[in-house]
Every structure is written in structure tokens, then in C-alpha cells.
Amino acid sequence: LFASINYDSSRDFNLTWPISQGFAVYRHRLDQRNFLFIDQLVAVNDSTFSTQDDDDDVSVVFSTLFGYGYNLWQGADPGSFQAVQLGVGPRYEYAEINLTRQRDQVDPIAALVYRSRDVPIGPAKWSQVFALATPVDSFDEAFIWSSTRLDWPITKQWMWTNRLSLRYRSRLLEAGFKRLNVILSTGLTYKF
């Protein structure tokens, strides 16, 4: 979960600008390899999922997936795994660009997701999400998202975190928008 509120007094409108991104995942194990899952994504004005990186625009994505998953690998720690998931569910997207509503609709989607978390690579931990989602009635609005994270331990609780996020949208809401969005971030992470 990530949330912030930015304030810019020099602006004529949107003086406060909320930014948030949150994921919730529930996995119900059927046996050691197979599971059912519910994934929840909420993103508000987040640069990874937004229509365009512009503080004048408003972007909201809300998605719920239900489906079947299969564990490819399970580490000694239950939080360390690699899995593939196939799910369906509703996706709501709202986009306001240059003060004009461009999108405000719910689509039924199907998604294929590869997810790994805390896979050891030497002293580092690697986590990956790769998702391909598309409305079930049309493939012209495909969405691909990849998030790669590598955590290097500094101490037992502090890590140097590096993340590369790629997002591709096959459908553009307006001419001139980027189909591919790349974000590289780095920082310190504290684990409780």
C-alpha cells in the first residue's frame, strides 16, 4: 500500500493531488501446488497505471480478479514463492484528461499473471509481477504490466530496494499519449 497527497500552491486548480496504489491478495490453498485467489488493485493518479503522467489529469483504476493459481516453486518461508494465476473479474477505469472525461466504465477482463516474491538470488531477494489483461469481449484494449523488484540487505531489517516498472496499453485515449511507460525507482525499505 502506498499513498500520498501532494500540494502545490502555484496551481489554479487541483491544489491537492492524491496518489495511491494498493494491492490485496488472498490465496486459498487446495493442496501444495494449486490454489484459488482473489486479487484487488486500487490505483489513483499513480504513474504506473495512470492514463498519462500529468498533474492536471485524473486517473482511477479499480480491479478485482478471481481465479485459479498454480505454485511453480515454494521457498522455505511461506512468503517466498513463484506462481502463475489465471483469473477473471471486473475492471473499472476513470480518466479525466484536460478537464474532459475520457473514460468512465467497467469492463469484464481476463488476466494471466506471473507472480514471485522474495526469491533468493545470493544475498538479494527478487520479486516479480508480470500481468497481461484484456477485456473478454475485445483484445484491442490489452494491458501489460511488469514490476521487477530487487532488495539488497543492508542490515537485518533495512534493504536497498530497486524497482523497474513497465506498463503498456494497446489503446490510447488521446493522440500523443505514450503506449509504454517505464519507471525506475530506488530507495531504502524497512521491514518490521
Write the layout of secondary structure elements.
Layout: E1 2-7, E2 16-29, E3 34-44, E4 58-74, E5 81-97, E6 100-121, E7 124-135, E8 143-153, E9 158-169, E10 180-190
Antiparallel strand pairs: 1-2, 2-3, 3-4, 4-5, 5-6, 6-7, 7-8, 8-9, 9-10
In short:
The protein is built from no helices and ten strands. The chain has 192 residues and is mainly beta.
Give structural notes.
With 192 residues, this protein is mainly β. The chain has a ten-stranded antiparallel β-sheet, with no helix packed on it.
Defining traits:
192 residues; 0% helix
Provide the spatial order of strands within the biggest beta sheet.
1-2-3-4-5-6-7-8-9-10
- For the secondary structure, the number of strands is 10
Largest pleated sheet: 10 strands, antiparallel
Computed Rg: 18 Å
Helix content: under 10%
The secondary-structure element order is EEEEEEEEEE
- Strand fraction: over 45%
Give the end-to-end Cα distance, rounded to a whole number of Å. Answer: 15 Å
